[in-house]
Amino acid sequence: MARTTPMRLVELMVLKQDISSVLEFLGRKGNFQFQSGLSNRSEDKESENPDKDILDALQSARVFLNIDDIDQSVVDKASQPTEEDFEVAKKLIADVEELKSRENAAAEEITRVKEADEEARSFSNLKVAFSELDHLSFLSLRVGKIDPAVIDELKFAVGDRAVIVSLGDDNSKILAATSKKARFSLDTELKKFGFVNMEIPKDFKGVPDDVLESLKRQLAEAEQKYHLIDEEKHNMAVTHEDILRHLLAAFVLGSRIVDVENSLESTSLVYRITGWIPENDCHLMMKNLDKLTDGRTAIRVYKPSEVPSIVSGSEQVPVQLHHGSLVGAFERMIFSYGSPVYGTIDPTPFVALFFTVLFGIMFGDAGQGFIFLLLGLLMRFKIVKFGGWNKFAPIFMAIGCSSMVMGLLTGEFFGNETVLEPFARFVTGLFGESRNQILHLMPNEGMKSIIRMFIFFGVTVGVGFIINSVGLIINIANNFLMRRPGKAIFGKNGISGSLFFWYVIVMCIRMAAFGHKFSMVDGIVIGTTLFATAFSEPFSKLVDGERPLLENGLFAALIEGVVEVLETIISYLSNTISFIRVGAFGLAHAVLGFIILTLSELAGPAYLAVMIFGNALVVVLEGMIVSIQVIRLQYYEFFSKFFNETGREFKPFSFEYK
Prior knowledge:
Blueprint: E1 7-15, H1 19-29, E2 33-34, H2 50-64, H3 72-77, H4 83-121, H5 130-134, E3 139-145, H6 151-158, E4 162-167, E5 173-179, H7 183-192, E6 196-197, H8 208-263, E7 265-266, E8 270-278, H9 279-292, E9 298-302, H10 308-312, E10 318-319, H11 325-328, H12 331-337, H13 348-362, H14 366-380, H15 393-410, H16 421-429, H17 447-481, H18 485-489, H19 495-514, H20 520-534, H21 536-544, H22 554-577, H23 580-602, H24 607-642, E11 648-649
Parallel strand pairs: 10-11
Antiparallel strand pairs: 1-8, 1-9, 2-8, 3-5, 3-6, 4-5, 7-8
Helix pairs in contact: 1-8, 2-4, 2-8, 4-8, 13-15, 13-24, 14-15, 17-23, 17-24, 19-20, 20-22, 23-24
């Protein structure tokens, strides 16, 4: 069984003149994890990052010019910004800021003229210039905004003390006229009704028609000016797109490197870097690093057992899992639950196998499985892109193949049981009498169907027994690897609990298949294993050399033992029975396919449409449901056997662009 990737701790003493090139080297390799986090900066160290400031400005310029963002491939090809890049970036940022300023000014001009035009139109029903009215010695005029709904109430409130004239089409502005003596009374009433005074434009002279025409010309000129600026912006985006993308990638690297530099231990001349590297890469990387700095970097390499923080348990060695593309696609399922402890068994190959098998049993259909396989192939060759989901293409291909195999066994092809009959007859004919299906799941043959169904459920429980057993074996091996023989031997998931589980299963098979009866030997074996499991804690401490054995006294140990026995029996029973759902989902899938086929035949001319829609619904919805159930079985039945503690995932330093 494969174990987690062996790691080495590397300590580097790097001269200040080499630090940028060293960090770039480590980031590009993507297999170096700093020993401590880089989020806390030293208080006595400058944390300014001019590269980050320029990067932010360049991103702002990119958004303003409506240029598509760069992706990881552009960053991978980039190098740190040069002096020339700094100069070009500053000039480009200045040009964009100047254009942005002119665009904002033009937009503000359009807004100002529009507002003036709207306000001027409010006075279009005045037959004389407002300036003439405002100079009348016996009148006091107020012009402003008000809620149109309260105009009638305002008119009633002022009575004959003032004249209220609605302005504009929407009645949102009014002109109120009263005598000079009644102006204070008018102001009081206007205030009650939420009147907002308006300032009449200084250039609002002459008749309203003349003013409206003038404002219309001003608006057209302002919009034309804005349009020209917009064209200039488009031209700048076209001519500067390549250089802007180049600068963005360069300053992504530069800003990340400066961030790391600011977070490292250092003196005025030397930086200290410590981090973890996979053992297989360590020698070549250090050789290349020494060559990069012409031998100026001091390098020391430690095994985990030589690191004080690891020995004391205050730090964990980061865990890396190394697999091919197929098994590696299942790694995220492991780490989403928790990281294995360093040096223990890598469960990923088992997860890949169990996930594929369980999905195929629950989703057996050759046609629908081919859809998953085809989708996986399209994702694998990036013909179809689903963002970050493309890395899971091998999973789609694997479950597609397993579903197709199960579909060939059950004779299901998009719910149709006749298409694959020739294949089933050929295969079954090799072993005796030819049958239409190798494995018939549909409950349409009376007692025979019921018997086959129970056999099928028994097979799925048997698969569950294998999965549970593998989990127990991994747990036992892990405890021995971590030098905890007491926990490996005793406990629910140790040798004692595992022997109880395996013996009871074998005993039940003997009784059911061969008519054996419960014997004294059975009682002794079961009693001994349960006794060792019940008092696993004191026995484990005895073997591991821990004291005291009975920390809470004998009575508490007896109570804990009874509870442990009950929990062991119940958990193993539930873990085994839980896999009946695999058979239930497999049967439900066959029935659902039959229902869709029947509905399609009843639809007549719409046969093809119903078939396509029904099978698409099954592929999407039932595919999701089955996936969730498989993950649940892995997490709660398999992982729970050996994931007693979690490790620390290996997350190397890289120039990942987000």
